[in-house]
Design brief:
By secondary structure, the protein is of the alpha+beta class. The protein contains three helices and three strands; from the N terminus they run αβαββα.
């Protein structure tokens, strides 16, 4: 989960906006899908990303939280031990 959190954080900070479905384009195992979901929940909980959805059943947009400065993000560390 910790590796996936870092991976998603990099993608979102580079692209600024990512569709939720993009994380599931590859043929993922059930375990990998759960890992992606847990990583996104952790990033939401820690306010690194924000999400929005226009209508029911639309794809979810994931945004980098602009309120978090680049310095805050570079100093940001995740509790990696929680995911071992």
């Amino acid at each position: 989960v910790a590796e996936k959190i870092e991976n998603i954080k990099e993608i979102v900070t580079d692209k600024k906006k990512v569709k939720f479905s993009q994380f599931f384009e590859d043929d993922l195992t059930r375990s990998e899908v759960i890992t992606v979901f847990l990583a996104l929940l952790e990033l939401l909980k820690r306010h690194v990303v924000k999400i929005s959805q226009e209508n029911t059943f639309d794809d979810i947009d994931i945004y980098y939280n602009n309120e978090m400065s680049k310095e805050d993000l570079s100093n940001y560390t995740l509790p990696v031990d929680e995911y071992k």
